[in-house]
Amino acid sequence: MKKFVPIALAVILLLSACRGSDSPPNAVHSADDLPGRIIGVLHRSSSARFAYEIGSDMLTFHSGEELLAALRTGRIDAALMEMHDAHAIATRASGVSILSEPLVEYDLRIAVARENAQLLNAVNSALAALGENGTLDGLYNRYFHGADFTYLPPETAGTRPGNLTIAVPYYFPPYVFPDGYGERVGMDIAVARAVADIVGTSYTIVPLELDALITAVWFGHADLALGFTPWDNGWDNANGEDLVNFSNAYARSTQEIIVRR
């Protein structure tokens, strides 16, 4: 009788595992599998724009935990997250994994009104100076990797007349998010301040929803806007390039694809 015990036990364990599993098999193995699938994104994230361009059905979630739970149970087929969110949320979660190839890589740039070529040149010169003195790398490492970096404004900050109205995303961590005192901080806030300091003017930060950033510059409600990214992916999309000009890049990011294991 003893020789039958291991076999019977193995069968019982196998049946128990099958009954206890509520995760359907993964059907998304690359970006080519995304069209027509149900994709989950975080509320107020840039990922919604990419999901829309792919032509997929989309569900929005208010937390990473809720999104990944929907992925594990098969309510959605895959999730899209900006690089920072994906590595902060998904790398430590069970039952999911990040595909080795991202959906798209893109530069982060600053939107400037088309008719204001002088301001565009000033912004690009400021970004070049901030790149050469290590400020852009320092800010990126601070907000993306927790590095200890302190920005020191130049002596010329605020010495020129005028004020730049700079639009940024209302909530888009780590680019814009509230600190412990309710003040908005983040990569975009720091870059906006540093650019204005190099230009030499004072500045006013105006937080807006992502879909209002380009129109704010287009209609003259803001001089600059950070947080809206043009990308070259071959899709037919209205990415704002017909409405505004974009500066040189101040950072680079990706949209990661998260799937069930």
Write the layout of secondary structure elements.
Elements: H1 5-20, E1 38-42, H2 47-54, E2 57-61, H3 64-72, E3 78-82, H4 83-89, E4 96-98, E5 104-108, E6 110-113, H5 117-132, H6 135-145, E7 163-169, E8 177-178, E9 184-185, H7 187-199, E10 202-208, H8 213-218, E11 224-226, E12 244-246, E13 251-260
Parallel strand pairs: 1-2, 1-3, 7-10, 7-11
Antiparallel strand pairs: 3-13, 4-13, 5-13, 6-11, 6-12, 8-9
Helix pairs in contact: 5-7, 6-7
What is this entry, summarized?
By secondary structure, this protein is α/β, with parallel strands linked by helices. It has 8 helices and 13 strands. The strands form 3 sheets. Strands 1, 2, 3, 4, 5 and 13 form a 6-stranded mixed β-sheet that branches. Strands 10-7-11-6-12 form a 5-stranded mixed β-sheet. Strands 8-9 form a two-stranded antiparallel ribbon.
Walk me through this protein's architecture.
The protein has 261 residues and is an alpha/beta fold. The protein folds into two domains: 20-105, D-Maltodextrin-Binding Protein, domain 2, CATH 3.40.190.10; 110-228, 3-Layer(aba) Sandwich (D-Maltodextrin-Binding Protein, domain 2). The protein is built from eight helices and 13 strands. Strands 1, 2, 3, 4, 5 and 13 form a six-stranded mixed beta sheet that branches. A five-stranded mixed beta sheet has the order 10-7-11-6-12. A hairpin with a 5-residue loop joins strand 8 (177-178) and strand 9. The longest helix has 16 residues, at 5-20. It starts with a helix and ends with a strand. The relative contact order is 0.19. Mean pLDDT is 86; it is low at 1-5, 7-20 and 232-238.
